[in-house]
# Entry
Amino acid sequence: MTKKFLTRHDLDVALALRVADQLETDILLNGRATVVVSGGRTPIGFFKQLAEQDIAWDRVSVTLADERWLDASHSDSNERLVRENLLTRCAADASFIPLKNMATSARRGQKELAGCLKQVGMFSVVVLGMGDDGHTASLFPGMANLSKGLDMGSGLDCLATSPVAAPHERMTLTLPRLLRSASVFVHLTGQSKLQMLEKVLAGRDIYEFPIRSVLQQKLTNVEIFYCD
# Structure
């Protein structure tokens, strides 16, 4: 399902309300809720709208779909982006689950993070973006271990990656872990993303455009929120 909005503000508000509603539902049913968000500039307005939602944030955990293996103080850190734009106002009471730990590399930190993620259980909401190359999270076309990241039978929750088309070593959640969620939303803005989305929907090869693996699966409900 694709929902198109006239302005980015309208999209940000609608997505924030939709995510907050799902979090409230899980809090009511399970006592806690977990939201997975993505980095980049696109979600900043959404983060600020979500931070204003009056829900039981002290029962919400926030984590990331992927992270660069950098200190949280680095300007390219997704954790820094989330702390500065989402974990504020009402959402300041939420807890944060970092993907970056004290290991010297993502590869060495993968086992420790996997243990942490096993304790989280099913996610309430996953909010993903899409790059102009069709990647999502840090599942990039042409990545050496992409097949492992997209393998629904891998048993892996997270995967250390070093994409040739993007800077920094990274940690990404795998496809099966991203889909272990009550809802998945794909947040897209701009004409170039619409053109890429049309290409994505026109084919079947998930290795060409890894976002296809999310949009074409039947396990988890996916909604696309888009505006120019």
Remarks:
- Residues 8-30 form the longest helix (23 residues).
- The first strand starts at residue 2 and ends at 5.
